[in-house]
Amino acid sequence: MSRSNQRSEDDKRRARSLSTRVRSMLHLLSERTIVSLIFICGVSAVIFVFGIFFFVFREGAPFLRHGFDAGGFFLSADWFPTSVINKRYGILAQLAGTGTVTLVAMLVAVPFSLGTAVFIAEFCGRKTKEVLKILVEFLAAIPSVVWGFIGLMVMNPLIVKLTGAPVGLNVLNAGIIVGLMSVPIIVTIAEDAIRAVPDAYIEAAEALGATRWQLVRKVVLPAAKSGLLAAVLLGVGRAVGETMAVLMCTGHSINIPFDGTPPYFHVLDSVRTLTATIAAEMGEAPRLEAGPDGAYPVEAKHYQALFVIGIVLFVITFTINVTADLIVKGIRKGK
Amino acid sequence: MEAGRNSESLFAEAVLVDRKARVLAREETAKAGAISTNLFAATKFTNRKLKTQTIVKWAFGSMSVIILIPLVVLTTVLVVRAWPSLTWDFLTDVPKQGMRAGGIWPALVGTLYTVTFSLLIAVPVGVMAGIYLNEYARDNWFTWIVHLAVVNLAGVPSIVHALFGLGAFVIFAGMGKSILSASLTLAIMTLPVIIVSTKEALLAVPMTFRMACWNLGASRWQTIRSIVLPNSIGGILTGIILQVCRAAGETAPIMFTGAVFFKSVQRGDLFPYKPTEQCMALSYHLHTISTQVPGVPDSMLYATAVVLLGFVLVFNTMAIVLRTRIRNRKKW
Amino acid sequence: MTGCIELKDLTVRYGGKTALDRVSLSIPANGIYAIIGPANSGKTTLLKSINRTIELEPGASVRGKIFIDAEDTRRVRDVYGLRRKIGMVFPLPVGLPLSIYDNVAYAPRIAGVHRKRTLDEIVERCLRQAALWPEVKDRLKMLGTMLSGGQQQRLTIARALSHDPEILCLDEFSIAIDPVTTMRIEDVLLELKKEMTIILVTNLVQQARRLGDMTCFLNMGRVVQAGDTETMFSENPGNQLTYDYIHGVFG
């Protein structure tokens, strides 16, 4: 560009500079507004988690305030919230229900999920891998109420036929169904963990002539150990929190399936879980009831007790998730 | 590292045994008068290793098949048993004779409403939160708390979401049991996954693009708007579609916040509900007719389940197709 | 005369290290100012401080003053306008995932230029200045990321010129490209220096000698010596460290 051109360009530039300045200020202002909006949304997740805890606690707190008997609550299996003469709120049976269903679910899910994860990550070809991963994703997409339906309509008669139990809605039924539901998450996380093993280890092993299996057994699995643990933990979290499937498949009795008589662990017993208790009874538990003097309505203890169960569930799953996340973070950092 | 040391000792051992076997093989062939020896011939040891490997491969492979057989078998069983009732009438008709006949129209529309409303809230908030976490947040303790909050929100059991919806929207905010309350509860439930998939889609765009734009005088938001978002929209959409599946299938969060057993609705009416009313929903409907209404013909029960399952699987397939198309159309 | 830069006691710290330590330089307008020095001597940090992208590094602290045409850049409100006055070229070629046309038109569009005719002019002018026009004029719609490395580097230069900068900064631009393209770009720079200030950071000492009107030797965040190229590269530059570096004794 020649000197004279440069000068007229400068003039043009100066003339534009006023409108440019206005435009740039508007731009800075709109930028700031958008950034604030984005920030608020970012923080919203924090607000909602605390919100969940706050609101659930708010509705359940009165139960914990007036003479709360922790021992009676956690260690007694007497759950009679609607009894006219003697209301009792012991959730031991529900804790046992959740525990046993989760146990059976993990016994079903863990070996097969880990095997599938190892197969997908280490042993199968590209095409097979694609197909398997899609199938796992479909398995994950099945809504929990459909699983419950399957347990009710398909598993139920199957169990009755195969084991001769009087009723097919029991720990075994719910355990298998919840196990199948937990498979996708365990497979996904475990596969991630196996793939995260540094290439350097694998290449070193292959260079020395190891077969795939030797590689997996001696190098990959020990290295992916904590990731596999995180996968199982997340599966447990899923199982503990499951509601609809257990609501429809456990048979709904307040019952601890352990006994002095063999086989000691009665998987064919009906139980009730923490989640199913809330789901089943919240519809019937009135929020307000007649007060002791009959005049003013007070918040019903049953209603509050159900919220307290919600708190217990929240705490359990919170702990499991934080632990699993810390483990996964530890792997990522180490990588 | 332990695994590293294991591999070293493993190989030392393997090499030694292998070497011994090979020396033995060579001596034997030399004894037999052969002139040349093949250094790379498979020894007995190698053959045994390969056989173990094949066995193991088949073992793990069959584990995968076993766990995925139920998917195929159950879907088939459901469709077969639902077949007699799967008609167009079933979809557009209202329930009759106390749910024992007719169709599922009000439940379908109700699900449509709740899912749409929940997305209208969850998508903008979730995407912007994802943008915040990936593009603006600095690496400090506050960001760590937000990340923790998102992870935990994702792991909260659906029944606790239901209690939250009950406590916060139905009671505290005074919205009562309504489509609004149910949608908001569903929105909070689907929010974390939308946030995480947005974040991961944004992360896939290389940092060098952003830096090039900043050096050209673009602000962060201009860069996001012109380069980052357009190149991550596919991943974001995939996450959203998957959450549509989840929102349509969940029962617990809408059970006490807006879903109702029965609502009288005109056949084929697309606008039967007001946002402040309760509605029927497909997932809740399946639950009630299979557990609380006696005498419903089996094929109707199965048909309801198949409609719900079909809806979910169709959307899931859309998400998978989208994801594959993104992967094949890489721009850099 | 526009485009003269003055650095006063510039100190930049980040990542727990001091990248620049009380650097004071005077860069005249319209010419090529070469900055040489071994790795990690702070050359890139210096460029980033001038266009204030150092602020986007987490934990960076900047002290001291930078004047462009006697205006204190740290106090300028419109950081984006400032960045548009300065063109920046990185070591690694970066093509934005847009068409070639949109790559070069990106900065003008951000600055508010939307008339197609103006944009057409700008795109052609900058691609010509970057010695890329003949190769791409028939495929302006092609994705910028699909060009070869050398072409992408020239595209980056075209982008850097598209917002009419007074100052052009190049940070080791020839690292990832072949010698032929490097020579073509060097010819371009010799043309461009007549109308803008060019700061050329390089670790190719001979490149500085070929192109620089003035040279500055930076070592471990400090200015060892700065002056006209002839003196710096002569047998007796006045500083033993300078002589040693230029003759390959270290670095």
Short description:
The complex is a heterotrimer of chains A (335), B (332) and C (251). By secondary structure, chain A is mainly alpha-helical. Helix content of chain A is 74%, strand content 3%.
Characterize the structure shown.
The complex is a heterotrimer of chains A (335), B (332) and C (251). Chain A has 2 domains: 3-68; 93-334, MetI-like (MetI-like fold), CATH 1.10.3720. Helix content of chain A is 74%, strand content 3%. Chain A has 12 helices and 4 strands. In chain A, a hairpin with a 6-residue loop joins strand 3 (288-290) and strand 4. Chain A is flat, with a radius of gyration of 29 Å. With 332 residues, chain B is an all-alpha fold. Chain B has 2 domains: 1-41, no CATH class; 86-328, Orthogonal Bundle (MetI-like fold), CATH 1.10.3720. Chain B has a two-stranded antiparallel ribbon. In chain B, helix 2 (44-82) packs across helix 13 (298-328). The longest helix of chain B has 39 residues, at 44-82. The radius of gyration of chain B is 29 Å and the shape is extended. Chain C has a single domain, classed as Rossmann fold, CATH 3.40.50. Helix content of chain C is 36%, strand content 26%. In chain C, helix 3 (100-111) packs across helix 4 (116-129) and helix 4 crosses helix 6 (149-161).
Strands of the biggest beta sheet of chain C: in what spatial order? 6-7-8-3-9-10
**Strand tally of chain A:** 4
Spatial strand order of the main sheet of chain A: 1-2
Rg result of chain A:
29 Å
Order of helices and strands of chain C: EEEHEEHEHHHHEHEHEEHH
- What is the ordering of alpha helices and beta strands of chain A? HHEEHHHHHHHHHEEH
Mean pLDDT of chain A: 82
CATH third-tier fold name of the largest domain in chain A: MetI-like fold
Q: Mean of residue pLDDT of chain C?
A: 89
Helical stretch tally of chain A: 12
Q: Which structural class do you get from the secondary structure elements of chain C?
A: alpha/beta
What does the main sheet of chain A amount to?
2 strands, antiparallel
Principal-axes shape call of chain C: globular
CATH topology of chain C: the name is Rossmann fold
Number of strands of chain C: 10
**Largest sheet of chain C at a glance?**
6 strands, mixed
CATH class placement of chain C: Alpha Beta
Q: Which CATH class of the largest domain in chain A is shown?
A: Mainly Alpha
Helix content of chain A: over 70%
CATH architecture of the largest domain in chain A: Orthogonal Bundle
Q: How much of the polypeptide of chain C forms β-strand, as a percent range?
A: 25-35%
